[in-house]
User: Fold this.
Amino acid sequence: MAAMSRSHFSHTFHAVAAWPCATTSEISAQHAHQLMLTSPLSLTAVAIDSGFYDLPHFDKAFRQRIGVSPQEYRHRYGPEGDSRTTGSGNRAARRLNP
Assistant:
């Protein structure tokens, strides 16, 4: 739309706006992260609501970014996870949102 490559657009945006341009994959991952920590939605619903094609696509992207499966992450830090109250969830949030 802007007649620029992604990298050129990102560089130009950063130069003009003085902060980095978030990619759609980063926005999708942040939205999925928030839903997984606060919502009882199924992982498939989280994936679709966050803009991923399907659960396998979400699973692969999540594993590459975080290092564990979405199911394991939700088990550790999700609404029912005990570790959220100990501060471990904050460490995971920093890992997703540096």
